[in-house]
Amino acid sequence: MEIQLSRRRFLQNSVVLSVFGGVTLSGPEVLALGKSVNKDKPASYSVPTLCEMCVNKCGVIADVEDGIVKKLNPNPMFPKSRNMLCARGVAGIHALYDPDRLKTPLIRVGERGDGKYMKATWDEAFEYIKNKMVKILDEEKDNRSCIGYCAGEGLAEHTFKTFMADKFGSANYLNHGSLCLQTTTAGYGLTLGAYGQADLENAKYIIMAGANRAEAIVTPDTLDLFKRTRGRGAKLVTVDPRFTNTAMHADLHVAIKPGTDLAFVLALTYVVLTEQLYNKEYVKNNFNDFSKYQQHILDNQYTPEWAEKISGVSADTIRTIARDFMAAAPQAIYYQGRRSTWGKNDFQLRRAMALFSALGGGVDVKGGIVFGDKLPLAKHEINAPLYANAESRIESDAAAIIGASGSWVAWRNMVEAGQSPYPIRGMFVYKQNPMLSVPDSGRTKRMLEKMDLIVVIDTMPSDTALMADVILPECSYLEREDPIRTFAGIEPAIGLRKKVIEPMYDSKPVIEIMRGLSKKLSKPLWEITKKYDEDVQDELLDEDESTYYQENGFDLTEPYLHSQEELNHHAFVAKHGEGAWKMLREKGVYYPEMEASFKKINNNSYQYYPDDKKVYSVLPIEEKTDFNMLTNDFYKHCDPCDNPADIAPWKRTFKTPSKKIECYLTNMARKGVDPMPTWKQDEYVKVPVGKFKFITGRHAIQTQNATQNNVMLLDLMRENYAWINDAEAKKLGIEHGDMIEISSSVGTVRIKAYPTPKIVPESIFYVHGFGAKSDGQTFAHRNGASDNEIIEGVIEPVYGSAIMHQTLVTVKKV
Fold first, then answer.
1. Any bridge partners for residue 173, and if so which?
2. Average of pLDDT values for 34-60?
3. pTM for the full model?
4. Chain-centre distance of CA 419, in angstroms?
């Protein structure tokens, strides 16, 4: 990454730029350059905050000495993380002191993607953006949707989205959902009324399919589960093409062919229905259209023998798992999963999984799928303007249902191919790296090359940042206070990310970035609206312009007039009071009666809620006897000490149209989607001779692309390797560590080989989060391979989610 400066500005900033340019410095030098100015702070202090090294947001206590964060410790008072901090959380210090982090606004001076930038002030960067946006919106006659935007998951995502959607007015929003959990959350939501959480701590039987909790995300419930497996209270069955570290902890591992999970679940269901193993009273009370589903499964003859031919899992194994699962029900879970769409039938797979768990009564009950409760926070009202000329999102017809967060792949494909109904001329990117996170990286690059304006807000010079016209440096999560968050669960709590040290260099939190940008854009863009919006023109004939501008939400600065601390205070105190606010600021966490109920049990075990206050069952019961202050619902009290088998059959009120578990989705049928989980052979991609099916996954040492430059984590895992069945590797002359070339229809990568018997034949696997090409990231540059360089950009038909596990590839030694 090359930065061009005037001679005067270079002399003024030479020390800071020596770090940015990638010059190797010793630890003390880096810390000295990055030392934060903390006014009115003691020499040593500790701050409770929330981690942002992955989506889990564990509680952290940061120790600071002389303005330098020395150590990150787990916060024992936070129920969600329960005094635990994983390797990524501890490595958050490097996210703060990474010598490659973005330190100042940058404006592109070379060709897009060549990495040539000049250092700029914030005002210069905002002025550049303003001039470009005024030109674009003038030419597009105030169609705000000609500027797209995307965001990664995080506490401040809403702050950014408030500006782009509510105030600026673009309909073209994209987030990680269609690259991650969208089909899963939708499948469970439409079936059960909500996605829910797996109560792994109390489950007696868990089927974990495709999820790799021992490696992909290590959280307290992961550890609790593994303490109870292998004959110690819970039976774990792993279903995966790979024998993973999770499989090592399992009582039974089932090696399944990629893309055949739906056939496996339908066969489990067939056994349960034909042998009448399901909880009949629960089904009678809580299922809608059960007879239709039962007939559907039987008529289609989804037998274990049928599934064996497709999945490679023996019929006897399928029968054993189905019987054992129902014997343990309702404390039995087909684990929902926390990751990407596998194949074209993924929505139907998640529906089948939800229904199978529900057949045993294991929904809204201890040891099953639970929904938990949450503590309320006051909302902030946004005065959103109406832009008459703003068009609807471009890819709304790409799948049966395109939600507000869109379909990343379908949207990208339309823009790249020039097929959008109107031009998409700009893109704002916040905390996301589409160049490495969206399948078919080459096509993403071609899309970005067509843009007139790209603005990237990030902490690191990612592959996507190097495609930007303007790069705006956000400070790290340890340098800012973010919007307060309520965490739902069995033990609900409110967590607060407090600022640990002042922002270093010339970086800012996103709320201040949006404040400055909105101030620069508000009046110029208002002039564009007045020029082209006929409704506004008519209304201004009878109204004072200044009053109309304010009262109708056209002042873009309105959501950012207060600090994040003030906004958090309002949201919390309105519901819980000043005394609780003081406790939250001091402890970093709040839940009712926290001071009385929080107790240390032993050196690494704590009580947060007494057993009789935990909320395993929250759905309203038909006999309305008690009132829940948190949810404003009447419900029949479920004592957590009661036997779950006794509680399970009660008739609940689910948050679905029928108030029951939905077997048959009438609205989906109207959209041409199968209303019940159905196997379609043409949706399954067979592997031709000489090819492999590529699958990918996560690893707990690296958080997707966000940590790939973190030297503390790279010391544990430097690069990714490609898993290939050892027998097939031998035929190809491939040995451990050999460089191999993997090619698909959209790209080619080179990566080291890991031949092993622990992966089924005709499959290739390597973990996500490597293969950065940005030379602005000294430590991540060209480590391993990016999976999205070879994954084809295709979508499943229901929600438009990216299909991650059906790309066919060839493999050869190089």
1. 149
2. 84
3. 0.93
4. 28
